[in-house]
Amino acid sequence: MPRAIDHLVLCVNDLDAAIAAYTELGFTVTPRAIHPFGTGNALIQLDGMYIELLSVIEPAKIAETDLASPFSFAVYNRDYLRHREGMSMLALQSHDAEKDREDFIAAGAAVPRVFHFERDAKTPQGDEVGVAFALAFANHPLLRNAVSFVCQHRHPPQNFYFPEYQSHQNTACAIGKVFLSHWAADAVREFYQGIDVDEVVEALHGDELIDKYGIDDPNFPTDGFAGFELIVDDMSRIADAAKTLGAIYKKDQLILPPSKFFGVMVVITAK
Predict the structure, then answer these.
(1) What is the pTM of this model?
(2) Which of 1, 22, 225, 227 has a CA that sits 20 to 30 A from residue 264's CA?
């Protein structure tokens, strides 16, 4: 069965600046939250999925990896930001991270142990609630800068999703496709088929991405996620703000180039 998007991890150097820009674009952004391992985030909740704006908040808390823990979420994203801003990770929905880990191993992925963590979240009323997650990563040698993983939510849904956070002035409701630009796109597509994410990730060679979307941007990666499709109910409710931030019209879509928007191409499409 094809996997569905849980969330996107968008790495930014300045979390406050990113929150301000996404708010200007018409999103409702959750309050900042701090991870126990040195990173922090703010979320944009959509219909059963979300966008995570992530930054390094407390570098001293990021522990280096060792043989017992060969992959670290915090180290990976810290190192990603040393090279560029952009979409660093794709998270997929999961009801059983341990089972998904077994499936990833069977598909030939390099898979560390399932990573469990907890943090506090703030409700729209200002109360703090606990949220907990289990992550299973599907690593691949060709995707060192574009990691996919499953995210099992180990908390009651009412502790995480709130209608107040899911309502956006720009009428955004969902994430469509994720775009990946890679010099070995054919091999990447084969790997994505093996882990059942080929229906949500469009893996293209760099020239194919440019030809398809009409954007030639110096911030496109050669081996990573280029951006994502944002689905909105009413294009007119986001158009002015998007154009102010640098978006251009292409084939009935509004496209924010990565050089204008924290290293991420956002393709805005009407539902």
Answers:
(1) 0.95
(2) 1
